[in-house]
Amino acid sequence: IRDFSNGFLIAEIFTVYYPRDLQLTSFENGTSLKVKLDNWAQLEKFLARKRLKLPKELIHGTIHCKAGVPEILIQEVYTLLTHKEIKSIRDDLVNFTDYSYQMRLPLVPRSTASKLIKDNIRLSEIKSNPNMLSNELKVEFLFLLQMLQRKLSRKLNPKWFEVKPTVGEFTLDHLPSHVSECKFNSRISRDGVAPVLR
């Protein structure tokens, strides 16, 4: 992941296809945020001159070492240069977080909220975009993601959490058989029942 973050390898690929338009000597193979941003700024100018387009979110995700993003970026570069589509390496939707990885873990080793933020928002992101509102929105999104992850875990594995059904849920699961035979035929469904406050 880190090898692609400074854009040097991407520049190397493009110099093979456009040796007269792009000089590799103008790129630095360093690890500082300044080097990364400078290299990618040069690449973006070059791409704009050639009327080629790489999605900004892929560039941003690659700079900040987001899991799975460089692979998608390489696919995009391949498509740009060869005009051929390839089957995606990743089958799941990429949301630039480690959500799919966390959902595959057993419950105990999953990240806490603070670790989730640390793992998914890099210091380089905050330095490159010091906009407080933008960073707050990212944190709120991660909190929401973790809350949904926990709710889904409770729903999928109620025995782990010792979740007991409410009286209403218990009643719906054990309706007498003669109720369905009534002419009245009330259509009670689990979806139509309002949640019981505890």
UniProtKB/TrEMBL annotation:
- Kindly list the places in or outside the cell where this protein is found, as annotated in its UniProt entry: Nucleus
Q: What is its main location?
A: nucleus
| Entry keyword Nucleus | yes
Q: Which InterPro entries match?
A: CH_2 (IPR010441), CH_dom_sf (IPR036872), Spermatogenesis_Ciliary_MAP (IPR052111)
What does this protein's UniProt record list under function? May play a role in apoptosis regulation.
Its domain of life reads Eukaryota
Q: Which Gene3D superfamilies match?
A: Calponin-like domain (1.10.418.10)
Q: Which gene encodes it?
A: Spata4
Supply the alphabetized keyword list: Nucleus
Which GO terms of type biological process are on file? regulation of cytoskeleton organization
Q: Where are the transmembrane segments?
A: none
User: Where is the CH-like domain positioned along the sequence?
Assistant: 2-79
What's one GO MF term for it?
microtubule binding
List the record's Gene Ontology CC terms alphabetically.
axoneme; nucleus
**Record keyword Membrane present:** no
Name the UniProt record assigns to this protein: Spermatogenesis-associated protein 4
